[in-house]
């Protein structure tokens, strides 16, 4: 396979380290990853301890000590195959909360502890940089001062990483209100290489009706807040109102679906169908209201699932009737290509994949492994070269 050149576009792939514990085809180890596919591989996640030091969240999976799985070293070891690859360690994530990060960023002494320990961990395991996934400044236990303190933190992190030529990236949400409250975009972009925006999870089983969780554009029947719960609305806000340079923005694409249980098998099957319960957990990921793309496409192979696209939309949804009334919105090969084309037309730096392990990692449904991610990479680079 041909390596995707960084000069052509960023393909930033997050790897969920806990995928190593999933059963059957859901189990994806570092050894299953393709070093030639992504320009940036991001290992999720590290965390913070109460003394503001970076910490491994899964010592058995991340480290080699005591016969562990050596996740960090195997991950950065992919560079032996592809020396052009950039490997990043992501710190944060939703489960970490925001309070400890808020306290860390509020004090120069606390920031120094975090930065020193982070740099040490990166060096010991040969990472090329750090991805900050604080979820989210001013939210989730944070403080109003977080918006200003985040910029200070990034400035100091950049100064610490610069001598070794390390990369610094930031992951941020797509929600306009959260962005306005917690992110000083002009200040942030002075200090980071790229910002990846998580343009998915706009809808889910927390809504009592079906909808696409990662629609590129608004649906014709959307009203009110739902008019802004789509990729284009988020990207447009960042570029036109928040001061985000397109060349630093990496647009997220999800390789998983959000699922509901329809209230009735006899009612409508499109968007806004009544659905008060999440869909059954996927057999490999084990989370209600969620299925990896690999789980969805395997079920479509093995069972009678209907696939449809709402009028005026690009992304598919699928449902299994009437036995269990499961309904899932997701992206397929065609819709991820459209999104990659969109990112290229907007002049964005590239695409981000969450997560590489939820793609068809073992080639269960396609002739090649990681088909969605390959499709995005190929489409984006072809579009930027035209």
Summarize the structure.
This protein is α/β, with parallel strands linked by helices and 386 residues long. It has one domain (10-254, 332-384): Glycosidases (TIM Barrel), CATH 3.20.20.80. It has helices spanning 59-62, 71-76, 99-105, 108-124, 146-161, 176-182, 185-189, 231-240, 293-302, 333-345, 371-384, and strands at 10-16, 40-48, 54-56, 86-92, 129-133, 167-172, 194-197, 249-254, 256-261, 277-278, 290-292, 306-309, 316-320, 326-329, 350-354.
Between the first and last Cα atoms, what is the distance in angstroms? Answer: 21 Å
CATH topology: TIM Barrel
Query: Can you list the strand order of the major beta sheet?
Result: 1-2-4-5-6-7-8-15
The CATH class: Alpha Beta
Which range best describes the helical content: under 10%, 10-25%, 25-40%, 40-55%, 55-70% or over 70%? 25-40%
Largest sheet: 8 strands, parallel, barrel
InterPro entries: Chitinase_II/V-like_cat, Chitinase_insertion_sf, GH, Glyco_hydro18_cat, Glycosyl_Hydrlase_18
Pfam family, one: Glyco_hydro_18
GO molecular function, one term: chitinase activity
Protein name: Putative chitinase 2
